[in-house]
Amino acid sequence: MAAFREMLDAEFHERVAREHVEGGMSVVELRRNHDVPLSAVRKWIELFQSGGPEAIRAAAEHLARVQRKPPSAKALQKLRDALVNPADDERSLQARLDAVVTVGVRRIHALADDIENLVPQSGVGIEALLTLGDLGELDRIDRVAAQFGPGNQGWVDGARERALRVRGT
Fold first, then answer.
1. Which of 1, 53, 93, 155 has the highest CB neighbour count under 10 A?
2. 3-class SS at 150?
3. How many domains does the chain have?
4. What share of the chain has pLDDT > 90, as a percent?
5. How many Å apart are CA 60 and CA 14, to the nearest integer?
6. Whole-angstrom distance, CA of residue 159 vs CA of residue 138
7. DSSP code of residue 148
8. How far apart are CA 137 and CA 86, in angstroms?
């Protein structure tokens, strides 16, 4: 990616836009040559075509001001509180971590429910079995496997092995 300073530099924006407008270089080629996002190249060209170098300069100056904004008072206060009360912050962090883990586990179980319910409708059985294995869902593997014929026993065994590895048993 182009250096951050270049991304804020009006002369750089103008040069890139001129290469397209006056030189006929494609936007994709400009993106590749200058290693900048395609949306940025398009925006610079649009600015140059609508208002010339002045429009590009004004947009770059605005972006530079926005990027230099100091952190909000609320963010600074949260940082101060964390530094003043590290023990409380550690307990708070542990509580938040517990909450995130709980939500993550619920989402995994919801995903496993979705997979189990979709298998009969979608015909993605083998992929579903392996995903259930990656989630450590042994009981669901058996229920889903019951919907297949005996010719898929190797896949079922592979999914079970994956589940056992995830569970650490």
1. 155
2. helix
3. 2
4. 1
5. 10
6. 8
7. S
8. 38
Output the CA torsion sign for 32, 36, 41, 44. negative
The answer to whether position 12 is within a domain reads yes
* Contact by Cβ (8 Å): 7, 41: no
- Give the pLDDT confidence of 31-74 residue by residue, as tens digits: 888 888 888 888 889 888 999 888 888 887 776 665 555 666 77
Residues 44 and 104 in one domain: no
Range of the domain at 111: 90-167
Query: Quick one: pLDDT at residue 2?
Result: 47
Where helices occur in the chain by DSSP H, the ranges are: 4-8, 10-21, 27-34, 38-67, 73-84, 86-122, 125-134, 138-145, 153-167
Residue 78 belongs to a domain: no
CA dist., res. 62 & res. 40, Å (int): 15
Instruction: Provide the CA 112 distance to its chain's centre, in angstroms.
Output: 22
Taking the chain (169 residues) in consecutive chunks of 10 residues, what is each chunk's mean pLDDT? 54 87 88 83 89 85 64 71 64 74 74 64 64 81 75 81 83
Residue 124 is encoded by which pair of tokens? Answer: 């993605």
